[in-house]
Amino acid sequence: MYKLRATIKKDLRILSRDKMGVLFMFVMPIILAIVITAIQNSTFELVNDNKVSLLLNNHDTGEASKELIKSIEKIGMFNLTLVKGKQMDAQVIERMNNKDALLAIIIPANFSSKMAAKAKNIAGKALNNFGAPVDGVNVKADADSIEPITLYYHPVLQESFRASINGALRSSLQLVESKQILQTLYFSLNETALPDSLEKDIINTNVAINQVPVSRDGTRVTPNATQHNIPAWTIFAMFFIVISLGSSIVREKLNGSFMRLKTLPTNYLIALLSKQITYLSVTLLQAAVIFAIGVLLFPLLGLPKLNLPSDIAGLFIVSLACGWCAVSFAICIGVFAQTQEQANGIGAVSIVLLAAIGGIMVPSFAMPASFKIAMNLSPLHWCLEAFYGLFLEAGKLKDVLINILPLFVITVVIQLLSLWGLKRKNLI
Q1: Per DSSP, what are the bridge partners of residue 78?
Q2: What is the pTM of this model?
Q3: Neighbours of 232 (CB within 10 A)
């Protein structure tokens, strides 16, 4: 026990002198957590709260285009600016290039007349099918198609966001077309205009959608950008101890510490155990610091507060498992690297790659099928799934054991690989 205490004291002194390593282990992940969360939170607010600037140039003068504009305004997604005149199309594009607006819509000149003709044609077909043809309502085998509405978008808008915008605009167009058909049918049957009250009763019959996040304990706390990012970047911080720990092991190999230990009444396995205890404590401290920042600092910065899981003991055990895996990985890199440059370069690049395929940088559900096997081999994936089970799904320790067990297996394999490397090099 005395030898272990002395070795831990030595490792703590070495760690205290490694200012760059401490910087990587604490300052960098904290900055990443704050910056990434702020950016992602701004994206959520853009979709949910803020309005996207939209230029609209209406070449039509009929009622259908006016109804379409009203419907677009009711969506609530857009900050609408009307532009008049056919010659303004070029200016619309120019303003978008200057990022005055991210979207622009051009309504063609014959939009209302074509929409009315299509409504009459559909109404005529419906009446004929009911066996009640009405004079004045013509049915054409091939009705003239409506000239498409042009939607210009700035290239900075991602495809997923454009898809939601396109869906909202299609809903507006569908609403306008349904109103036209409904009014035509009612007038054909009653020879009077459709009352506004009846039109509202018929049109506004959409069933409400109640969005409820799935959780294991029945709570309905809506996840936010903080709940997603804090666990992810905590794991990233834990594994980045490879910069300090991997370099420390390489230095000891190069300066002959391994050979000197063989001449003393001790074993290098004690030194490895000391490093694991020391750096495992560091990873737990990293988790505590980043979680505290999410709880205490984020609200002061205008970011959503981190909601800690109800199972604090489970959170500690998951953090312990993730930290042990991170320490084991760093030791393995240090054992097989020949120089400090190799340890730093290989360690940093491998962590970024494992984070990418593990779901930290790109959500796991968005991964192509060909990456599924590689994702399951990444220890960061199982760390993230375990943390998400606690933070996002409000689970308990028993609920995330299925994620901790593969992580434990990977950790044991890495430990055995490190021991094999030490024996192969005659260092133990």
Answers
A1: 52
A2: 0.71
A3: 25
What pLDDT, in 10s, does the model give residues 28-38? 778 888 888 88
Cα–Cα distance, 255 to 248 (Å, whole number) = 11
Instruction: Judge whether residue 141 has pLDDT over 50.
Output: no
Determine the Cα–Cα distance for residues 120 and 187; give it in Å rounded to an integer.
11
Specify which residues 128 forms β-bridges with.
none
Q: Does pLDDT of 404 surpass 90?
A: yes
Domain boundaries, the chain: 2-43+216-424, 52-203
Whole-angstrom distance, CA of residue 307 vs CA of residue 352: 27
According to DSSP, the β-strands at 150-153 and 52-58 are unpaired
Q: Which range, of 213-227, 232-246, 395-409, averages the lowest pLDDT?
A: 213-227
SS3 labels along the chain: CHHHHHHHHHHHHHHHHCHHHHHHHHHHHHHHHHHHHHHHHHHHHHHHCCCEEEEEEECCCCHHHHHHHHHHHHHCCEEEEEECCHHHHHHHHHHHHCCCCCEEEEECCCHHHHHHHHHHHHHHHHHHHCCCCCCCCCCCCCCCCCCCCEEEECCCCCHHHHHHHHHHHHHHHHHHHHHHHHHHHHHHHHCCCCCHHHHHHHHCCCCCCCCCCCCCCCCCCCCCHHHHHHHHHHHHHHHCCHHHHHHHHHHHHHCCHHHHHHCCCCCHHHHHHHHHHHHHHHHHHHHHHHHHHHHHHHHHHCCCCCCCCCCHHHHHHHHHHHHHHHHHHHHHHHHHCCCHHHHHHHHHHHHHHHHHHHCCCCCHHHCCHHHHHHHHHCHHHHHHHHHHHHHCCCCCHHHHHHHHHHHHHHHHHHHHHHHHHHHHCCCC
Tell the CATH topology of 52-203: abc type-2 transporter like fold (3.40.1710)
CA–CA dist 25, 371 (Å, integer): 28
* Mean pLDDT computed over 165-187: 81
